[in-house]
Write a structure and sequence with these properties.
mainly alpha, 14 helices
């Protein structure tokens, strides 16, 4: 077999292999000391792996993201290490005290033992989370204020490891954090949550992979790069309203609710030629603006106004 055929075959096999590897790592390292001395190690490892894949399997429509690297780093750090604590600080009092104060009962409806064995709870959490995130993501495209928050995530001109977490913190929290806080309060086992959360996040991480890897049949189950690029297409497919492929980790919700889009030509999945904001807005390199502008709080200082957004150059 020629080197080219081996390379092409590997582009089909690498995604299922990596998904299985990362899922196995989460189970094998649960409770390991690495979770204490390097929080979110699995996300960091996934990002590093995706960066390597992007170097090996070059995508022909790739666009350089170097001019927004500083913004990407800041957004990754905020959403990985700050946003969860802040969201819990705000949401938990509402979930714990307001229902009891105004309704005379707690939101918690069951103990972990009543909800079944851990494996069953993990499966239930993944289904509930993916269902919630599908509809929240869809609302973030259809509701004006939510789109103001979410639109900065769609101004990126390519899907790459560095910008998977680029988003206004409120936007990111609504889609990726609040649901887990709610499930914890309801009564799901902390062990089940510790297993399910990274599993759910792994699929989302690889959806933003900028490498030219093939999903094959996995496109109809998971949100692969081939599926998610169409969600970020600068041109929304005709007849799909605001966007398509709203699923964060699984594709079957889009198939079920009629928002799945992945065209084929000659037996091959077609990819959009251009990623970007559907309204044509350029990428935003100023993280402070992403943070404050949707809330009407952004007042740039004179020297901030002179910071260029940077040219959109093809990747080398």
């Amino acid at each position: 077999m020629s080197a080219k055929k081996i390379f092409d075959l590997s582009s089909w096999m690498i995604l299922p292999a990596l998904l299985l590897l990362f899922y196995a790592l989460r189970f094998l390292t649960h409770g390991h000391a690495i979770e204490q001395w390097l929080p979110k190690w699995d996300v960091l490892l996934a990002i590093a792996t995706i960066i390597l894949l992007e170097r090996i399997y070059h995508y022909r429509y790739a666009v350089s993201q170097r001019f927004v690297l500083k913004r990407d780093l800041i957004s990754n750090l905020v959403n990985l290490y700050v946003n969860g604590a802040v969201t819990a600080l705000i949401v938990l009092p509402v979930l714990l005290f307001l229902p009891e104060h105004f309704l005379g009962r707690k939101l918690v409806i069951a103990s972990p033992e009543q909800l079944g064995p851990v494996w069953f709870q993990v499966a239930m959490i993944l289904l509930l989370v993916s269902f919630f995130r599908y509809w929240m993501h869809r609302l973030q495209h259809e509701v004006g204020f939510l789109w103001e928050l979410h639109s900065y995530h769609h101004r990126t001109t390519d899907l790459q490891a560095s910008n998977g977490l680029v988003s206004n913190p409120i936007d990111y929290s609504l889609r990726n954090i609040v649901i887990f806080v709610v499930l914890g309060v309801i009564g799901f086992s902390p062990v089940a949550l510790l297993i399910a959360v990274p599993l759910a996040q792994t699929g989302g991480n690889f959806g933003h992979c900028g490498a030219d890897i093939k999903g094959g049949f996995l496109n109809y189950l998971f949100v692969t790069p081939e599926v998610h690029r169409w969600h970020h297409s600068a041109n929304v497919p005709e007849g799909y309203g605001y966007s398509c492929n709203y699923g964060v980790e699984f594709s079957f919700w889009d198939i079920l609710f009629g928002t799945f889009y992945l065209p084929q030509e000659d037996g091959q999945f077609v990819q959009p030629a251009r990623i970007g904001h559907p309204g044509g807005l350029p990428d935003e390199s100023n993280y402070l603006k992403i943070l404050l502008a949707p809330l009407g709080l952004y007042r740039p200082l004179p020297w901030l106004k002179r910071i260029p957004s940077g040219p959109q150059q093809p990747a080398e």
